[in-house]
Amino acid sequence: MQQVLEILAQQGPVDPSEIATRLDRPVDEVEALIRQAQEEGILLGYRALINWEKADGEKIYAFISVEATPEHNRGFDKIADYVSHFDEVHSVYLMSGISDLTVVVEGSDFREIARFVAEKLAPIPGVRSTATSFVLKTYKMEGEIVAEEAGNHRLAVSP
Amino acid sequence: MQPRPFVSRTADSIPPSGIREFFDLVATQDDVISLGVGEPDFPTPWKICDAVVDALRRGVTSYTSNYGLLELREAIAEDIYKRYGVEYDPGREILITAGVSEGMDVGMRAILDPGDEVIVAEPCYVSYKPCVVFAGGVPVVVATSADNDFRLQAAQIQEALTPQTKALLIGYPNNPTGAVMSRPELAQLAEIAEQHDLLVISDEIYGHLTYEGQHTCFSSLPDMKPRTLLLNGFSKAYAMTGWRIGYACGPAPIIEAMMHIHSYTALCSSVLAQVGAIEALRNCEAEMTEMIAQYDHRRRLFVNGLNEIGLPCFEPRGAFYTFPSIQGTGLSSGKFSQALLLEEKVATVPGDAFGECGEGYIRCTYASSIDQLKEALSRMAQFLDKLDSGKLPVSYA
Ligand SMILES: Cc1ncc(COP(=O)(O)O)c(C=O)c1O
After folding, report:
1. B232 within 8 A of B247, measured Cβ to Cβ
2. d(CA B21, nearest CA chain A) in Å
3. Pocket test for ligand 1, best of B125, B234, B354 (most atoms within 8 A of CB)
4. Which of B235, B264, B284 is the last residue in one of the domains?
5. pLDDT surpassing 90 at residue A55
6. Residue B234 lies inside a defined structural domain of this protein
7. How many C-beta neighbours within 10 Å does residue B195 have?
8. Whether residue B221 sits in one domain with residue B150
9. Average pLDDT per block of 10 residues along chain B, 397 residues long
10. Is there a single domain that holds both residue B278 and residue B293?
11. Which site among A77, B109, B213, B338 is 20 to 30 Å from A141 CA-CA?
12. Which residues of B touch A159 (CB under 8 A)?
């Protein structure tokens, strides 16, 4: 399954028959593995990777370090789940280190994100402090280097 | 006074490689998908570049020993021992060269006297025969064929032997066919080398790019180390074609003779390329393995695709080339490649660029992205349809 997942992670949806050829496995086996990965919540879906800094309708992101009070028996699960349900929230991680949660928030401008933090995130019971860091420029995302392509310098025909 | 022709007869006697001619034609076309290249599409692993930039800043810019940096020779010796169990003495049995290209040239000059014959198995890399000729030797061609999956047969060598035969030159995994030879098959060649007291020059530049089974290093065969001149380099496995770095391993007297020539003609290989090569051997196994895994995916996809569109292709088990037959189309390799380029903008290399027996085949490199390969296959399918329905201009026939 690992190899199939790696292809999907790199390329997004790929026809099972192509994966089968590349890995030299029967198509049914590949189809079954993909189905299994979906059923077990391993393969969650496919998304396009977009560099919003280049697109017209700009989106900006902030990484927010949140200190929270853990609950008896449930730790940070409940508060993290609560935070996850806001549309503005792109991802939520439990962290080691100084803060407890890192919340990635998406918005169309700085003000919108600032308002979200002040009005929605900070007031949540159990949230003790927030520290907001805005993303100013993206260099690499999801394993892809965003910088200008190096370009292809190969000759068209060589020995 | 009109100057007389100064170019030597030797230089004049070698025609330009078929690849060069084709290159000029391709250069006139736009939007070409090129399956004509003989090099990786990956950039050199970043770690290697970083190590070299760092070395430059530290002022590593001098000549090295004629043999090459000892640290690199040691790393090469370790690598060969680890992979194949053959021990080379970094002090006397390894020479760093500007790629296999220079290793081949210097090697031939070190071993050949005028009239010495070298058996060369075709189809093969374009520089083999010219290197023999430039060194004053005589190449004796044996033709491998698709019937044997382009593997050299011991009987063919027997037929080509004469009292002048000094060496046998082989390159497996093979450019252009992708053929590999198994250990038992190579052992048969070794037996002939032993019986007839031959040196075997083994170009193993694609050794790491072996997809099924293990690559056999020729000098790892019993008693073959004293009869093997092993040539290898970093161009293909580490995606370092433009760096010009490789090495030769062999018996000390041959390596010393090669070093002697190399010391007068090249002095030493580029120190920066040598630094990069050390980094490659020490820290880039994972990067290399990942590139090989990618080539393997593309190989299966592309070979499958060729067979599906009706260009029969034996399964290449090494390098990054396919060598499909185009005999069913009735066109010559040259015409086929030319028409495919002009009609569908897909560049391939006519098989006869690699020896007469390559006629009837074309070389397609699969060191390109999966998307490019799929697009190329669909253009090729379209081209074959046009051919079948007689829609191609007659000038190609
Ligand atoms: C079989 C073979 N040998 C040698 C070379 C040249 O390699 P290098 O870059 O090490 O000179 C090539 C390059 O295409 C090749 O295909």
Report:
1. yes
2. 10
3. B125
4. B284
5. no
6. yes
7. 10
8. yes
9. 91 81 85 92 96 96 97 98 98 98 98 98 96 96 95 96 98 97 97 97 98 96 98 98 98 98 97 98 97 97 96 95 96 94 95 96 96 96 92 68
10. no
11. A77
12. 17, 19, 38, 125-127, 175
At which residue do the structure tokens 């001149």 appear?
B229
- Residues A86-143 have pLDDT tens digits of 999 999 999 999 899 999 999 999 999 999 999 999 999 999 999 999 999 888 888 8
Q: Are residues B232 and B367 in the same domain?
A: no
Residue B189, H or E segment? helix B183-195
Q: Which residues of A touch B34 (CB under 8 A)?
A: 154, 156-157
B50 lies in a domain? no
Tokens for B109? Answer: 């000059």
pTM of the model: 0.89
How far does the centroid of ligand 1 lie from the alpha carbon of residue B108, in Å? 15
Out of B236, B243, B244, B274, give the residue to mutate to test ligand 1, the one with the largest number of ligand atoms within 8 Å of its CB.
B236
Which of B22, B175, B301 lies at the smallest CB-CB distance from A157? B22
Tokens encoding B281: 């051997």
**Cβ of A157 and B347 within 8 Å?**
yes
ipTM of the complex: 0.72
Give me the domain span that covers residue B185: 60-284
> What are the angstrom distances between the C-alpha of B244 and each of B96, B319, B348?
10, 19, 24
Hey, is the C-beta of A2 within 8 angstroms of any chain B C-beta? no
Cβ contact B19–A11 (<8 Å): no
Same domain, B173 and B275: yes
- Whichever domain contains B346, its CATH number is 3.90.1150.10
Q: What is the largest CA-CA distance in chain B?
A: 64
Residues 6+ apart with CB under 8 A from A129: A66, A67
User: CA angle B150-B302-B390, nearest 5°?
Assistant: 90
A10 contacts chain B (CB < 8 A): no
Same domain as B362, residue B239: no
Same structural domain for residues B273 and B331? no
Is the domain of B275 the same as that of B292?
A: no
Coil, helix or strand at residue B315: coil
Please say which residue of B224, B253, B284 terminates a domain.
B284
Ligand 1 atom nearest the C-alpha of B99 is: 10
The alpha carbon of B107 and the centre of ligand 1 are apart by a number of angstroms equal to 14
**Cα B129–Cα B133–Cα B137 angle in degrees, nearest 5:** 110
**Is B38 close to ligand 1, i.e. is its CB under 6 Å away?**
yes
Q: How many domains does chain B have?
A: 2
Tens digit of pLDDT for each residue in A33-47?
A: 999 999 999 999 998
Q: Say whether residue B177 is in contact with chain A using an 8 A CB cutoff.
A: no
